[in-house]
Amino acid sequence: MLNLGCLIDGEDYNRLFPLGSSESKAKVDSLPAASYTMTITDGPESEMSLELNLYVIEFQSVNIVVGFTLPDSVKIEQDIEFLFTTQPTAERRMPEDLKFKVKFSEEKRSSAQNGNELEKLEYIGTFLEKKYEKTKATFYLLDYKGIGNPDKE
């Protein structure tokens, strides 16, 4: 099972807390979610042939969407465990990790954008953020591949 973590803002954490807290009577192990792989390729006029996969999970019941890249050595799995946490506050000194299991679908979507991996990631991240903003969902973009890390080898 692939395990991933996401640092979310306090408001989103508060929506998840009753569903994922070990102290909650309403605790659930999984959340309703839709998922897909977004493949961003170069446009037809490009001389490059660079492809980027962004994996997207929509947690509809809590209005949270997570998009993430994975290193080439890690393959997406059907079973994923997502861990959510937030920054400590005066009221919540040590936030509990909230874990949910998700089944990742085989649905595929595609988009075209010329550029290197970082340009593709910025393009699709901005596009999805605006798309989900219209539905009042918070979009989190996680770069587990390290595309945005200038020290990446």
How does this model look, in words?
With 153 residues, the protein is α/β, with parallel strands linked by helices. The chain has one domain. It has 2 helices and 8 strands, in the order E-H-E-E-E-E-E-E-H-E. The chain has helices at residues 10-20, 117-133, and strands at residues 2-7, 34-41, 52-59, 64-69, 79-85, 98-103, 108-112, 138-143. Strands 7-2-3-4-8 form a 5-stranded mixed sheet, with helices on one face. The two termini are 27 Å apart. The mean pLDDT is 91.
- Class of secondary structure makeup: alpha/beta
Largest sheet: 5 strands, mixed
User: Total strand count, please?
Assistant: 8
The Cα radius of gyration reads: 17 Å
Number of helices: 2
What fraction strand? 25-35%
The separation of the N and C termini measures 27 Å
SSE series = EHEEEEEEHE
Low-confidence stretches: none
Percent in helix: 10-25%
Give the mean pLDDT: 91
Number of domains: 1
Order of adjacent strands in the largest pleated sheet = 7-2-3-4-8
Overall 3D shape? elongated
Secondary structure: elements and pairs:
Elements: E1 2-7, H1 10-20, E2 34-41, E3 52-59, E4 64-69, E5 79-85, E6 98-103, E7 108-112, H2 117-133, E8 138-143
Parallel strand pairs: 1-5, 2-7, 4-8
Antiparallel strand pairs: 2-3, 3-4, 5-6
Can you give me a brief rundown of this structure?
This protein has helices at about 10-20, 115-135, and strands at about 1-5, 35-40, 50-60, 65-70, 80-85, 100-105, 110, 140-145. The chain is of the alpha/beta class and about 150 residues long.
